Amino acid sequence: MGRIFVVELDGRSYRCKFCRTHLALPEDLVSRAFHCRRGKAYLFNSTVNITVGASEERLMLSGMHTVADIFCCSCGQIVGWKYESAREKSQKYKEGKFVLERGRIVDEIDFSTEVYIDTRPSVSDAEE
User: Which top-level group of life is the source organism from (predicted)?
Assistant: First the structure.
């Protein structure tokens, strides 16, 4: 097995709930109106640090789709699926997009970068 290279995303990101590996940026979020067997799910234009499983035909709430499960590349946990193709014309917009299951991700801000906040009392212009 080869070496795993993990992409680090700056600022706020969606991460694997199990190992905190970065998976997606809020800017890539398309919809929060998706559901899966375990609850809510989010649709993204792109993700990072995932491996894609084998494609299979699956009957979803919106019809028949060809999908592939996606896994966190660090811990191997399933985090959602990728839409490979859709049969119905109204569902074609999902093709090539990724669904992350809400119960398997966390929304976090990366505080590893130094932030300076001046907490000293300041004088307003009116007080001078």
Answer: Eukaryota
